[in-house]
Amino acid sequence: MWLDTPFKQKMSLAEFDKWTNTLDGDVIPEYVAGYATTKLSTTYASVIGVRLGAMLGFYVIPQEIGYLTGAAGGYRVGDGRFVPDIAYISKERQPQLGKEIWNPVPPDLAIEIIAYPDMPHEHTFLRRKVVSYLNFGVIVWIVDTDDKTIDIYQRGEEVRTLTINDTLEAETLFPNFRLKLADIFA
């Protein structure tokens, strides 16, 4: 089975798993709410992802507290197969990473970068992913490259929106981590 568009196709999870075994590595697939979709990005969104990932890495790697994955690291989140642009999983929850295509342990943090703000399907899939992530206790940061904001979702809390003038803090995951949003969107 193959996608007839680069955006979405309805299929079962079994069909999706079979389809992903035929891919050559240039396609980043996701399975969201019964649809196979491919992940697309822009150069600017990629730059923002690298900046944010690097700055998180400067905190996470020296402390040896967990792992950061990039836009090719997939996770099973319930019946979903998600590929966040950046994810963090603590060594406390997963002392060693496996070699599966889809990590069976959902991340502690999933960061999704909106590459195409004017594309309605991207927002639809993001909303569905956020709900799934939250159901599994994952903290979610949605980075809007046009508005230069980060929406922070955490189960049981109101959504917080940070603007370019704010400082990102994540005390529950990264004590004493501070990052000015202006440094990400520079």
Commentary on this structure:
By secondary structure, the protein is an alpha+beta fold. It has one domain (41-184): tt1808, chain A. Helices cover 26% and strands 32% of the residues. The strands form four sheets. A six-stranded mixed sheet has the order 4-7-9-10-11-12, with helices on both faces. The protein has a three-stranded antiparallel sheet with strand order 1-3-2, sandwiched between helices. Residues 1-6 have low confidence and may be disordered.
Condensed summary:
The chain has about 190 residues and is α+β, with helices and mostly antiparallel strands. The chain has helices spanning about 15-20, 45-65, 120-135, 180-185; strands at about 10, 30, 35-40, 65-70, 75, 80, 85-90, 100-105, 110-115, 140-145, 150-155, 160, 165-170, 175-180.
Topology (SSEs and partners):
Blueprint: E1 9-10, H1 13-20, E2 29-32, E3 35-38, H2 43-63, E4 66-69, E5 74-77, E6 80-82, E7 86-90, E8 102-103, E9 109-114, H3 120-135, E10 139-144, E11 149-153, E12 160-162, E13 167-170, E14 174-180, H4 181-184
Parallel strand pairs: 5-8, 9-10
Antiparallel strand pairs: 1-3, 2-3, 4-7, 5-6, 7-9, 10-11, 11-12, 13-14
CATH third-tier fold name: tt1808, chain A
Count of distinct strands: 14
Named CATH architecture:
Alpha-Beta Complex
User: What's the alpha carbon Rg, rounded to whole Å?
Assistant: 16 Å
Widest sheet: strand ordering: 4-7-9-10-11-12
Question: What is the top-level CATH class?
Answer: Alpha Beta
**Residue share in helices?**
25-40%
- Give the ordered list of helices and strands: EHEEHEEEEEEHEEEEEH
| Broad shape | globular
Distance between the termini: 42 Å
Instruction: Name the poorly predicted regions.
Output: 1-6
Structural class: alpha+beta
> What is the count of structural domains?
1
The overall pLDDT, averaged over residues, is: 88
